[in-house]
Amino acid sequence: MFFTKLKRVIKSGFISFWRNGSVSLAAVLVMIVTLSVILSLVLVGILLNSTLTGIKDRVDINVYITKTAEEPQILALKTALEKLPQVLTVSYQSRDEALVEFKARHQNDELILQALDEVSDNPLRASLTIKAVDPSQYETIANFLVSYADQTQDQGKIIDKANYPNNKDAIDALSRIIASTKKLGLSLAIIFGFIATLITFNTIRLAIYVSRDEIAVMRLVGASRAFIRGPFIIAGLMYGIVATVSTMLIYWPIAKWMGPITVDIGTGINLYDYYTSHVFYLFGVIILISLVLGAVSSFLAIKRYLKV
Amino acid sequence: MIRFENVSKIYADNSIALDGVSFNIQPKEFVSVVGQSGAGKTTLIKMILGEEKPSTGTVFFGDTDVRTFRRGNLNEYRRKIGTVFQDFRLLPHKTAYENIAFAMEAAGRSDEEIAEDVPHVLELVDLGKKIWNFPHQLSGGEKQRVAIARAIVNQPDLIIADEPTGNLDPVNTYEIVQILKKINDLGTTIVLTTHNKGVIDSLGKRVITMEYGRIIRDDNKGTYIL
After folding, report:
1. How many whole angstroms from its chain centre is CA A163?
2. Are strands B81-85 and B2-10 parallel, antiparallel or unpaired?
3. How many CB contacts within 8 angstroms connect chain A with chain B?
4. Which of these, A27, A34, A5, lies nearest to A238 by C-alpha position?
5. Taking CB atoms and an 8 Å cutoff, what residues of chain A touch B76?
6. Which H or E run contains A96?
7. What residues contact residue A184 under an 8 Å CB cut-off, 6+ apart?
8. What's residue B189's pLDDT?
9. Inter-chain CB proximity A218 and B102 less than 8 Å
10. 3-state secondary structure A27-58
């Protein structure tokens, strides 16, 4: 009997979705708007994250080593830095490597190359490039460098110059921007998501309000609550499925159009490539939201009309 | 079969819908309830259906106090009663067939029974040719016949007809009354409320007359007197 009832409920839900065409269309359209808002928020969040990661990646401290420092001393400093929990990576560039890179960078600039040849000794310094786990931690690392220099003073000066003090303001500002952008993004996502959900909920409530007399008749005929409620929940799920597929299709050309733009503005990813490679993930997220939204809205909205 | 014992209904605004009503309906009886608008006919019917609860007194169906029905039992109880209303109360997005099938599905009948009984019952009310029509494609009389078909398809013990001819022309009124009479002859108890003097006089059955929430007359072979 259970499966017969389930079959009847599903069939009835499909039929009422189809026959209440205009109401279904309205609910689906509103749901498309909601899902579009949510999908936009997800995509903007991904772009923002990738942009911020890109910017963070470009921030580092360069420590220039004195020409007199021995390589074991430099490597000891590198190891000491790597032991800091705030440090993500430390890369070492020797004087020779620096020279090769400098020459490669200026290979079309005869004047500079000639000038370099005239200087007998390699004028470039070795350097350590430090990347922190988080931009806000550069200050700690800079402090460590100062104390390290003090401690190893007796072995001769190793650190010629660190560029942190010059970049300090920029790094601080960036850390603040990253933190507040994330907060703002999250608040906007919550607010818009909430509003969109509320609108969808009300539309489905309206769709069921239209059927309140019908529900009363069903109660009079002796139908159980589950038997009345079932088809409305199925219809709610249908709104969700149709709206999800439509939203994903609508976003396809938009993502294609936005793809080159997202690369140009330096987000670090091509939106279209991301969209096509993550289409199942995005579909999964959106359909989950829409099914829960559709089913829960229907379930709650019908409640008050069942009390006959 | 149905027993009202000193039943009163007072609504929240202190209006009195029923005032100390007592009567008894035997199985297979055909009882008409008449009275002006506001006399308490509809409240009386809502009490039988369990839609309203008495403020004082008790309504019995068989030996059971209707008030004691809880959600699940109330559904089962309502399946024993067929209802026909002035405004037909059909499901607008379902065809004649589906409207009747819905009542059977709600009662947990099998697909085979439904496929067999629905066309049969529609033939019975002379609607065999409009089985796939939606309510808006049917005339008032036809809609009411679908409602009657729905009311009888689960072979209920009782049929309640609340002003079933209120929206119908004389020809359709006559036909609906004839159908109700036929159902009663086959052994189903019928409670009919109406304003229509012609209907009551032609029936020649028991008539309960109400005024201001009270029963003022209960005649075994009554006529419409107000």
Report:
1. 31
2. unpaired
3. 52
4. A27
5. 222
6. helix A95-105
7. none
8. 95
9. yes
10. HHHHHHHHHHHHHHHHHHHHHHHHHHHHHHHH
pLDDT in tens, A49-69: 888 777 777 778 888 888 888
pLDDT at residue A308 in the model = 53
Strand blocks (E) in chain A: 61-65, 87-93, 127-132, 159-162
Q: What is the pLDDT of residues A113-135, one digit of tens each?
A: 888 788 778 888 888 888 888 77
pLDDT at B129: 92
pTM, two decimals, is: 0.73
Q: Higher confidence at residue A41 or residue B121?
A: B121
Contact list in A for residue B111 (CB cut-off 8 A) is 4
Q: What is the DSSP letter of A307?
A: -
Q: The dihedral of CA A194, A200, A201, A202: what is its sign?
A: positive
| B106/A217 touch (CB, cutoff 8 Å), yes or no | no
Euclidean distance between CA atoms B159 and B84, whole angstroms:
8
The span from the CA of B81 to the CA of B154, in Å, is 9
Q: Is there a contact between B83 and A223 if contact means CB atoms under 8 Å apart?
A: no
From chain A, pick out residues whose CB is under 8 angstroms from the CB of B88. none
Q: Is the pLDDT of residue A259 over 60?
A: yes
- Pick from B51, B83, B105: which is nearest to A308 by CB? B51
B200 within 8 A of B32, measured Cβ to Cβ? yes
- Nearest Cα residue in chain B from A219: B75
Q: How far is Cα of residue A121 from the mean position of the Cα atoms in its chain?
A: 49
> For residue A167, is pLDDT > 80?
no
Mean pLDDT, range B198-226, rounded to an integer: 87
If you search the block for the tokens 């006919």, which residue do you land on? B41
How far, in Å, CA of B108 to CA of B129, rounded?
26
According to the model, what pLDDT value does residue A173 have?
Answer: 79
Average pLDDT score over residue span B9-33 = 92
Rounded Cα–Cα distance for residues B26 and B189 (Å):
8
